[in-house]
TrEMBL record:
Gene Ontology CC: one annotated term: cytoplasm
GO MF annotations in UniProt: ATP binding; glutaminase activity; phosphoribosylformylglycinamidine synthase activity
EC number: 6.3.5.3, 3.5.1.2
Any one of the GO BP annotations: 'de novo' IMP biosynthetic process
Protein name as it appears in the record: Phosphoribosylformylglycinamidine synthase subunit PurQ
Length: 226
């Protein structure tokens, strides 16, 4: 039986369809989830896709954090369910305290959209095991509130525990502290990042590269071997 991956849609979500396709390309079954429903429909993992949920009012992800579906996601994530937050989804994960830190406006105050080179720092999570530590990949980046910040103690803990999952290369695009592009929780089942792997899974669309496919094939292998 194919593993099922829930993809949540909030008001203002943009990339849910792209994420569903990426899940399908990797050999998994995408399951659309609506933000008002607490029922996760017995999925094996969840992706919070990119966009501007609730128009980014108050703060990016601040309102979505209180959507009914997040109550179940938080509970299941704490129980070990794999959860991936992409861009706005990463913002929701920090607002939900599933991941530490916060996302602020880019230091140059402009929306940025470009292909971004990253270095994989942690290849031991549910979403990164198909990569190698130190591997360089290139996937799209598009945000205006993408600057990752945290206090020095939290940053030091992330570094010491190997919880920085991805780091920006060839220039920091938004002022994120320590060039952090993505992080993981201590258990390795919850990962958040600002760049968009779902836009780099097929050679004919997006960047023309498949560097982002490893996120979803990593999950497939984890669920199949569970």
């Amino acid at each position: 039986m194919t593993a099922r991956v829930g993809v949540i849609t909030f008001p203002g979500t943009l990339d849910d369809r792209d994420t569903q396709r990426a899940v399908r390309v990797a050999g998994l079954e995408p399951v659309p989830l609506w933000h008002r429903d607490k029922d996760l429909k017995q999925v094996d993992a969840v992706v919070l896709p990119g966009g501007f949920s609730y128009g980014d009012y108050l703060r990016a992800g601040a309102i979505s954090r209180f959507s009914p579906v997040m109550e179940t996601v938080i509970e299941q994530a704490k129980g070990g369910m794999p959860v991936l937050g992409i861009c706005n989804g990463f913002q929701v994960l920090t607002e939900s305290h599933l991941l530490p830190g916060a996302m602020l406006r880019n230091n140059h105050l402009h929306f940025i959209c470009r292909e971004q080179k990253l270095r994989v720092e942690n290849a031991g999570t549910a979403w990164t095991s198909d990569y190698e530590a130190g591997q360089e990949i290139s996937i799209p980046l598009k945000n205006i509130d993408g600057r990752y910040v945290a206090d020095e103690r939290t940053l030091d803990e992330l570094e010491a525990e190997g919880r920085v999952a991805f780091r920006y290369l060839d220039g920091n695009p938004n002022g994120s502290l320590r060039d952090i592009a993505g992080i993981t929780n201590a258990a390795g089942n919850v990962v958040g990042l600002m760049p968009h792997p779902e836009h780099a899974v097929e050679p004919l669309v997006g960047t023309g590269r498949t560097d982002g496919l490893g996120f979803f094939t990593s999950l497939l292998k984890k669920l199949v071997n569970a």
